[in-house]
Amino acid sequence: MGQGAAPRRGQAYDGELGAAVARAQQGDEAAFAVAYRLVQPGLLGYLRGLVGDDAEDVASDAWLEIARDLGRFRGDGAGFRGWTATIARHRALDHLRRQRVRPRSSALEQDVLELPGPQNTYDLALEAISTEHALELVRGLPRDQAEAVLLRVVVGLDGPAAARVLGKRPGAVRTAAHRGLKRLARQLGAESVTDEAPRTLGEST
């Protein structure tokens, strides 16, 4: 998969994924390869947001567990994405503990005093989220916001599914995703202004 590839989503996607998983559970190796191809882009993007350059190694560990426990899975395509994201998250947290990296704790924020940004700033964040640079910015968010954004936007889980992965209420995940996207949009906007500043100074001299 190219690093800039975006995960596929939608009913047709989940239908194809669910059918592939069902065949894979009956021993069809080609079907498992199809499921891998459909899930891996989003899963890898999620892991890049959690562990950075170690995402490939963590994803490999996760897929070994997914293959081992595939027979235990019960559900449809959307459920499979949530199940694989849960496994990947556990492997990522194990990896962080082994590296003795303390995950960022959720910071108390003063968002009550902030007005929502224009909708196009969220569109900007959503369009950029699949790039390596944007994933690096996501890693700088408080952990609850980063995971909510990654699960909703990169993996493509709905609110309840993301909440199950994180062990939180859907409302809390929606709020965290909203705050994370707003912060990301502000960062992207600030970088855009910074990039334009030298040209403006050059024109005035």
UniProtKB/TrEMBL annotation:
Q: Which SUPFAM superfamilies match?
A: Sigma2 domain of RNA polymerase sigma factors (SSF88946), Sigma3 and sigma4 domains of RNA polymerase sigma factors (SSF88659)
Indicate the segments forming the RNA polymerase sigma factor 70 region 4 type domain, all copies: 135-184
Query: InterPro entries given for it?
Result: RNA_pol_sigma-70-like (IPR039425), RNA_pol_sigma-70_dom (IPR014284), RNA_pol_sigma70_r2 (IPR007627), RNA_pol_sigma70_r4_t2 (IPR013249), RNA_pol_sigma_r2 (IPR013325), RNA_pol_sigma_r3/r4-like (IPR013324), WH-like_DNA-bd_sf (IPR036388)
Mind listing the UniProt keywords for this protein, alphabetically?
A: Sigma factor, Transcription, Transcription regulation
What residues does the RNA polymerase sigma-70 region domain cover?
36-100
| Transcription in keyword set | yes
Identify its protein family. Belongs to the sigma-70 factor family. ECF subfamily.
Q: What is this protein called?
A: RNA polymerase sigma factor
Whose protein is this, by species?
A: Streptomyces indiaensis
